[in-house]
Amino acid sequence: MPRWLPRAMVLALALVALFQLGSWAFHQLIGLLVNILIAFFLALAIEPAVSRMSARGMRRGLATFLVVLGLAVVTAGFFTLLGSMLAGQIIKMIEGFPEYLDSVINWVNQTFRLEVRRVDVQEGLLHSDWLRKYAQNSAAGVLDVSAQVLGGLFQLLTVGLFSFYFAADGPRLRRALCSVLPPARQAEVLRAWEIAVDKTGGYIYSRGLMALISGVAHYILLQALGVPYAPVLGVWVGLVSQFIPTIGTYLAGALPMLIAFTVAPWYAVWVLIFVVIYQQFENYMLQPKLTSKTVDIHPAVAFGSVIVGTALLGAVGALIAIPAVATLQAFLGAYVKRYTVTDDPRVHGHRLRRQGRPDTFVRLRLGRPRAPEPDSEGSA
Description:
By secondary structure, the chain is an all-alpha fold. It has 14 helices and two strands. The longest helix has 43 residues, at 183-225.
């Protein structure tokens, strides 16, 4: 056995053990890393407001606390109003269930000439096996739901604390990062950080403005139709449609349609038509004007980034995909050298044709030109 073979085997085993240990640690900490990533982008989003308040003489920690507190109060108020609205609608549906059941039974009896009674239907529902199994599964899933709620609250607290520290200690964090880099790299890192702050903050603020416009528009429609809880539904449509990419509009419109259906079935149709029309207006008129100076990326790139982000990180990836791609695009655009494009018709999508042979396209040859071929008489 060569002398180097035992040491090589020990080194290979050590490298495999380190790889396995690192893979295990990464899978154990993936939840924490995702929370830190969310907190970092949230800190970048509130960085302009914190810096503006800090520039006016307020301490950075206090400014960060006020901004985070304002966001927490707005979020808690929104979910409180939404929960009360849903609870009220559920109570209303339960109270009106006997009347609705009577109308359905009367329609069935008149249409199919049957003699179905409400008492028979109620007894059949109460003594059915699926209702008993559903009650058992619901009782068994109470602990799972409670654990998920507690886990969600812990994750929310983790994201909030890391966001506060990232935003409050932003200058210290940048100083610590630049201290391990040479001076030539420090300017690039600071420039990349500034671009990330501008793009993320611009994305959040432009989305917030579009959410406000969308909420007001849907509130006016729901109020005109007499749909209950119109203010809360308007806020719901505005936030969900803007901060859940691609499918957020249709998810947001489902709840107002359901509430409008309880008032009158045709109202749900009107809400659906308005949602579709407003979505087209937002895509082709409103969004390009509001995001042209903040998140200037092509719609196809935005759609592809959302798909990639969803495949990698789920809903979190869908939320942070667009500002991340916008930051990367702006950073590359600042350092990639560009040249003036020649005024060629082919740049504008036109194709040149040979004179005298209109059915043949011009072939572009690269490299050395070919020698002229001899004609039929042998001359060049």
